[in-house]
Amino acid sequence: MKIIGTGSAHPKCSVTNEMLEKFLETTDEWITERTGIKERLVISSEKLEDMAVIAANKALEDANLTVADIDYIICSNVVNEYVTPALSCIIQGKLGATCPTLDINAACAGFIFALDMADDKLKCKKARNILIVCAEEPSRMVSWQNRSTCVLFGDGVGAAVVTDGDELKAMRLTTSSLTDVLYYQRKLEPTPYIDKEENFEPLVMKGREVFKHAVTNSCRDIRKVLAEANVKAEDVKYFVLHQANKRIIDSIRNFLGVDEERVPHNVERYGNISSAALPALLDELNRGGKLQKGDKLVFSAFGAGFTTGACVIEWAK
Ligand code: UT7
């Protein structure tokens, strides 16, 4: 597998820490110190699927392909307005594609799970060009009265086009069922037969536990994929990590002993945009002219589940 195009799209409404101070018992100082986040972009008038189409078209253009060249679409998403049909079906129609599509939910690690799935499809020759779209609106899962969660998230889309190649050097995915540290239950319709107790609430998160799992698992995954690919940390151009919290990013960087320039971040501008964070950051690097053919990149992400994913790729463009 190799990545041949990237794209991203973000909503226009910026919510700064100062704006949050007006309706939450919080301060810019607390949010900046604990998370590094200064503002987050959240959906207002936009529809997630329209943003997804913008990001997908950018990725196709970057790959020098048209929608007719795509023969599979994988959409990574945790929530959107539709339970059914799948978001990928909606995106397919709006893009004008005719290929099969599938939604996956591996939470914030979704991009890496999608890359792994795409790699399998390419190896089996079941597809030639695959579009991955990570479209997320976590701002709709949190209570905006809860200062512990709503300050952390933003919305956005990251997309990538992948095709046959030898540029994926190592891949590691993990799932460890740990469902009480981070979850969000959706309210379902009542029926005349439901007699169990149901208490639905906005996103629940044990922040400190998630923090620890994130750092421990990411460090372990990165070490393992580097060893598997036989690549030294000093030979990696960029460590492209999930953008949840600048302190998490810094902790992983410190444990790995990597200098700051090689661990790019944009969480300060977008907040945590779940699985869209990694491909959106990759798109920034790509469009910013920061990547050269042959560069070795490490991706690592973690999310609710608990899920983790990491891989080593060589930049192919
Ligand atoms: O994609 C995965 C998504 N999740 C994550 O990545 C989250 C990972 N965890 C974190 O990023 C951090 O744990 C947080 C940023 C969520 C919290 O930072 P912390 O340093 O672990 O703080 P804490 O949870 O231990 O809370 C410290 C205090 C608490 O007050 P008390 O109980 O000590 O009186 C909180 O109520 O900070 C309080 N607090 C706030 N204060 C001001 C929590 N949120 C805020 C806030 N403003 N927004």
**Side-by-side strand order of the widest sheet:** 1-7-6-4-5
CATH third-tier fold name of the largest domain = Peroxisomal Thiolase, Chain A, domain 1
Rounded mean pLDDT is: 98
- Summed up, the helix count is 9
- Helix amount, in percent? 25-40%
CATH class designation of the largest domain = Alpha Beta
- Low-confidence sequence ranges: none
* Quantity of strands, as a count: 13
The ordered string of helix (H) and strand (E) elements is: EEHHEHEHEHEEEEEHEHHHEE
CATH H-tier superfamily of the largest domain:
Thiolase/Chalcone synthase
Q: Any guess at the CATH architecture of the largest domain? A: 3-Layer(aba) Sandwich
Structure notes:
The protein has 317 residues and is of the alpha/beta class. 32% of the residues lie in helices and 25% in strands. The model has no long low-confidence stretch (mean pLDDT 98). The structure holds oxa(dethia)-CoA. The site of oxa(dethia)-CoA has 19 residues, from helix 2 and helix 6.
